[in-house]
Prior knowledge:
The structure holds two protein chains of two kinds.
Chain A: H1 3-34, H2 38-52, H3 57-79, H4 87-126, H5 129-135, H6 140-178, H7 183-192, H8 197-222, H9 227-257
Chain B: E1 2-11, E2 14-24, E3 29-34, H1 40-47, E4 55-60, E5 63-64, H2 70-77, E6 80-83, H3 95-105, H4 110-123, H5 139-151, E7 157-161, H6 169-186, E8 189-193, H7 197-203, E9 206-211, E10 214-219, H8 221-226, H9 230-237
Parallel strand pairs in B: 3-8, 3-9, 6-7, 7-8
Antiparallel strand pairs in B: 1-2, 1-4, 4-5, 9-10
Helix pairs in contact in B: 3-4, 3-5, 4-5
Amino acid sequence: MTLIGVVAWVGRRATSGLALVGAAAAFVWSAMRAVGDVGTWGRLTALQVRRIGIDSVPVALFIAVFTGIVLALQSSYTFTGVVPLYFVGVLVTKSVMLELGPVLTGLALAGRVGANIAAEIGTMRVTEQIDALEMMAWNPVSYLVVPRVIAGIIAFPIVTALALGAGIGAGWITSVSLLDLSTQEFIRGARMFYDPFDLRYPLIKAASFGAVVTGVGAFHGYHTRGGAAGVGRATTRAVVLGCMLILVLDAVWAVVLL
Amino acid sequence: MIRLGGVSKSFGNNHVLRGLDMTVEGGSTLAVLGRSGTGKSVLLRCVARLLQVDLGGVEVAGRDMVTATEAEVREVRLRMGYVFQFAALFDSMSIGENVELPLRRARVGTAEARRRSDEALARVGLDGTRDQFPADLSGGMRKRAGIARAIVSRPDILLYDEPTSGLDPVTGAVIDGLMVRLKREMGATGLLITHDIQSAFRVADRVALLNEGRLHAEGSPDEFRASRDPLIRAFLEGRADLWPGEVPAGAAG
Lengths: 258, 253
């Protein structure tokens, strides 16, 4: 590739990147304005909370349970002979509550919820259903985007809270059944460095993950072009970008709140 | 009334509409014919402001659609019915819910919405399908459901995007008959985009031929039938040899 070719490639990438940022900013602005249209999104949000939240519980619990089991076994393996074994309780609860619970739940839901929203709204775009909404004088952002984002902000913390319980519970059961640890010792470890903020922190993170995953899914779905292939592309982008933003936000919250 | 003056619309280097002038008189139906890619659907979307024009003016029911605010556009859309090419019904809703959707936006009460949606479904011959889903219906029935949704709010203006495409001739004729009856009963102004010449002649008061983003010809169905214009003849008779620059199949070599 010649130098001019490289410069042209960089220019094209920069232009498309800026266009994406501009489109995302316009989308966020239109969504913020649509929040005032409560009459449209209000009655649609409950359904989305059920779809995003309740339907996601099994996969979140599945991941949390196995995370709790592995954490207990690995910490026991690491601590044996060096650190008192009740520190297994410390590591399991702290790791599940502060990091693994919200992040793994967020990543799982980015795949499940983000892909679902992008595919659903993308299909509506390419089959002119969004145009039909506009022709009926509905605001499609109020109708399709706002209920999903608000549902994500509500549902992700609920699912994450359940996942935290399941992960810690699985770590405790593993500790008492497979390790030489009693329930009292596990609880002693769990309470040792506990701070009430440890419960608020994952829920704050989960709410932000919910906003990002649903918002990114809705954005890519809303801007879908090009039939079934376009829907596929939108879905992939929604999942990839959703996962990346979860990890970025995770780091941001750690810097800001810890 | 719908009036377009000097409308241009491009997508990148693709200049779809190039200074299009067109008028649809109140209460009449204009059918716009043209080859694929000549900008017929773009024209319809510009009228509804699903697309914003690059240049020129679009006036619908006395409102300048180019400069209108979003709220003003929504007001005009409440007076419009748009029949989409593939019906654009919501898969997750029953037919009844689909048809009632415009009424919910207009804050019509539940009982009244039910009565009017039943009436609209009866008008298009779909009584008894209220609880079915779009996936349960044939292509023709879905199109009729789309028409029911477009007319349920009793619009002054009806926009049809290829309502008979992909249908067998008998079902197409049923849809045509329906459009004629709706025009007679509702007196709405109609803009019909179609490839289907028979449909255009059956439904429209005036027929226009679009070519390369401009209005090539306009007249009554009888004037079109009698025209000696080569593009009109090529279109009416389906003869590629009459179309400038087009090589008919089998002529090569």
